[in-house]
Structure formats: structure tokens, C-alpha cells
Write a structure and sequence with these properties.
Largest sheet: 6 strands, mixed
Strand order of the largest sheet: 2-11-9-4-7-6
Order of helices and strands: HEEEEEEEEEEEEEH
CATH topology of the largest domain: Immunoglobulin-like
Number of helices: 2
Shape: elongated
Mean pLDDT: 79
Distance between the termini: 128 Å
Strand content: 35-45%
CATH architecture of the largest domain: Sandwich
Structural class: alpha+beta
Length: 224
């Protein structure tokens, strides 16, 4: 009696264990696909950088996509980078080859539009082919930092990112910003400026010290 009642219980327990294990295995392999497929990540690189007033820095717009569930990549992308126009100005935008990945005959047609405090980058791949599925810089933006910019942590932010698959369906997007730590020297008037002068020593005190030294030298020469 007891032996017969154990067999169904053991079999049921084994079935439950197998079912749970199967669910865990399926979930483990499905998670990367659900999290990564059909998503395009737009990021500014480096994510953190130091700079000085009056300097020109370069920031990469990196796009990462694995394509869709059937392996098709993207053939169009666009993004707007927002910045403080009192601190930054766009000096140049250079388009990269990210969108041409996977086809040596593919070309990237790109454009950029600079407005007050933002630059919009748009690109298309010709021919579309299978599209691009990779992680590479799509463009490089050169920013000039104003010579009177204050010491601060400034944020460069991506908005309105868009990635279009060759099937004409849009991918979901994730946008990642960048922080620029700007170092400026405070002048006596309270404004910021970059200078090579010795901190705390102005031009007039230096001249006064030089004149005093010259007088002392002449006095010693007269005594000798």
C-alpha cells in the first residue's frame, strides 16, 4: 500500500521539477532576446569627460543595435543632441560608417542641422540591403567651449532618437547622456576665464617687484 502510493507522488514531484527547470531554461535564453532584440541604444561617448574653457572636445554618437527578431538591421537613424548654447557651440559634425556595416558597397548619406542649443543628425544607408546590426560611432560632434564658461558639470543629452529597420518598422530606443566637467579660473571681477598667469599674482605686483630688484642691484653696484 505504502509503496504503491509513493510511486505516483514521486513521479508527480519529478514532473514538477522538470517543468520548473524547463521554465527557468527557457526564461534564461529568452531574456537576452527580449531585452536586446529590436532595441537600438544611442549613447554619447565618453560618458564623462573633463575639459577647460576655450577648448574643443569631440563626442561620439554611438549607436548599438542587434537588428530585429529575424536578423534585419537598420537603414535609417536620427537623433538630436541638446546642450547649453551659452557654454557649447557646434564646430563640426563628422558622419561615421556605422550604418554601412556589413556591406562594403553600402554608403551613408548624412546631414546635420544646428539650432539654438541643439544639433540634429540624420542618416540613411544606400542600398538598404540587410541593414546594419552593430555597435559603432554613427557620428562625431566637435564642440567649442566658450572662453567665459563657468566651472560646472554640463550635460549633453540625446532626444528624439530614431532607428528604422529595413522593413520600415521602427526599433525601440534607449538614450544615454554625457557629462562634461568644465574647469574655469575665476577672475577678480567674478567672471570666468582661462589664463596661464600664476594664481594670486597680478601683472602690477610683478612689475613692482622687478623694479625694486633693479634698484637694489644698482645700489649695490654703486657701493662696490
Amino acid at each position: 500500500m505504502f509503496e504503491r502510493s509513493r510511486l505516483p507522488t514521486t513521479a508527480l514531484a519529478l514532473a514538477l521539477v522538470c517543468a520548473v527547470a524547463g521554465t527557468v531554461v527557457v526564461g534564461t535564453f529568452a531574456a537576452p532576446a527580449a531585452a536586446g532584440d529590436n532595441i537600438a541604444i544611442f549613447a554619447l561617448d565618453p560618458a564623462e569627460t573633463d575639459a577647460e574653457v576655450g577648448e574643443t572636445i569631440e563626442i561620439d554618437l554611438v549607436v548599438s543595435t542587434h537588428g530585429d527578431y529575424v536578423g534585419d538591421g537598420i537603414d535609417e537613424l536620427s537623433a538630436t543632441v541638446v546642450y547649453d548654447a551659452d557654454v557649447f557651440s557646434v564646430a563640426e559634425v563628422t558622419h561615421g560608417e556605422m550604418l554601412a556595416h556589413g556591406d562594403p558597397d553600402a554608403e551613408v548619406t548624412g546631414s546635420s542641422e544646428v539650432a539654438d542649443g541643439e544639433v540634429t543628425i540624420s542618416q540613411e544607408r544606400e542600398p538598404s540591403g540587410d541593414g546594419a546590426a552593430t555597435t559603432e560611432p554613427a557620428a562625431t560632434i566637435a564642440f567649442d567651449i566658450a572662453p567665459d564658461a563657468p566651472t560646472a558639470n554640463e550635460t549633453l543629452e540625446i532626444t528624439d532618437a530614431s532607428a528604422i529597420l529595413v522593413s520600415d518598422y521602427p526599433q525601440g530606443t534607449i538614450e544615454r547622456e554625457s557629462t562634461v566637467s568644465i574647469d574655469a579660473v575665476e577672475t577678480s571681477s567674478g567672471s570666468s576665464a582661462s589664463t596661464d598667469a600664476v594664481p594670486g599674482v597680478g601683472a602690477i605686483p610683478v612689475l613692482a617687484l622687478g623694479g625694486a630688484g633693479l634698484i637694489l642691484y644698482l645700489v649695490r653696484q654703486g657701493r662696490s
